[in-house]
Amino acid sequence: MKAYSYLRFSTPEQAQGDSFRRQTALAEAYAMEYGLELDTGLRFADQGVSAFRGKNAATGALRLFLRAVEDGDIDSDCYLLVESLDRISRSVVTEAQGLFLSIIGMGVTLVTLADRKAYSKAVIDQNPVELIVSLLVMIRAHEESATKSKRLKQAWIGKRAKVQEGGHILTSKAPGWLRLGNGEFEVIADRAAVVRQVFQWTLDGQGKEVIARTLNEQGVSPFGRASHWHASYIQKVLTNPAVIGTLVTGTLEHVGGKAQRHPLGTVPNYYPPIIDQETFARVQALKATSTKTKGRAVVQNVLAGLAVCPACGSRMTRVTKGATSKAGKPCLVCSKAKGGAGCTYRAVRLDAVETAIRIGYADIEEAVVSYGSEGLAKEVDNLQGAQWHLEDQLEELVNTITEIGRSPALTKRLREVEAEHANVSRILKEKRTLLGSKSIQARLRDLHGALDGGAVSRVNVALRELFSAVVVRYEKGDLLLSAHVGATVVLPYELHWADETQ
Predict the structure, then answer these.
(1) Type and span of the H or E element at 171
(2) In terms of domains, do 315 and 432 share one?
(3) CA distances from 401 to 147, 157, 395 (A)
(4) Is 269 exposed, middle or buried (0-12, 13-18, 19+ CB in 10 A)?
(5) pLDDT, tens digit, for every residue of 215-259?
(6) Which of 113, 125, 140, 181 registers the highest number of CB atoms within 10 A of its CB?
(7) Which one-letter DSSP state was computed for residue 10?
């Protein structure tokens, strides 16, 4: 009769040590003793895959074996040799027992090599006590893993507390442009230069797809194990606070079989910074107002990522076809209307909008400067108050959970308040960066220089650094610009539209 071995290791390193040799030797010895044909060409092994979360049975090699039996590729009248039941599962007992019964229910004889027990449907039916024995083994396996998990969580809590106090390294893992040496993080000069170039290209109006393609064309080696640069990695670099030296701590929880990371706090000056805070804040402001451009190298719309439909609040996009094809003039239309998802199709001439912005710089400067630091300071004070209020709520929720224990409702509310606190903290940080008059004046100078004969992409970047949205009010024939500092500007434009539905 055929026999198949299933090996599992908690960490990949165990595959190189005695664990692999031991499990393999036990399977070979058992097959020889009982006259089984051990299939050495089809060995199932999960290296570094958890049985505590059931990942091996859901997506690992154990699942491949079960699927092969289900599909008839492996005769169900066979033996599956494992070192012990905890190699199969360390999940909660209901899930572990369900997996155990499904295996033997297929007709497979499950052998635990450590105690030489053979479990099959016939054995369990004849001696139900064996089911109770297996149940006790699975309960113990889960309790061991649960205890280990709790200890690890407590250890990480202690590590995070030491890091917050300062002078301690949380983990040797570092961003791609840093390495740990002699107990300190060191900057890898050539990689840091690449990161700085990525930020500069972004401020110049290039998208992450274009940046990734440029790096690949230039033959720049990627930081990780990937064979080439990906837009997703560019996005991670641009949004990673580690570039300004900040560590974001968090916890990892498993919900519904999926890992979810929850941020806890930040530790400034944990890493050596390679990007100044002003540049980082500028890029985050751009990202907050950006839209997908399908990797286009050149922005052709001064209001890309900013233009908003006055009727439905959807973004407006640039078009050069349909109602405006005869005139050959690019226009702005509601993206919702363009996609036939509702709203009215109204086309606003882009050249009229651009002209209004170019000649309206004085109005922009006056509104932003007059609002200035005073209005922004008031907004920062309000955000600071909201942040403190949320921190009080968090403390109250944590104390309640400590006193009465966790509950689904309390845990859900805690996550909601944590998310709200993180969002308010992010906005507060951005507003504080904008608070200095020098920062506002610098942005205005950038816009003035871009409007004075600069490329469309430069104008777009400068506008996005100053404004969060521009409502194109085609019924009134004006633009309503909402600045990050809180000011609003109204600029009239020459009315040009086509009342046609696409």
Answers:
(1) none
(2) yes
(3) 20, 17, 10
(4) exposed
(5) 998 999 998 778 888 888 898 899 888 899 888 776 655 555 555
(6) 113
(7) S
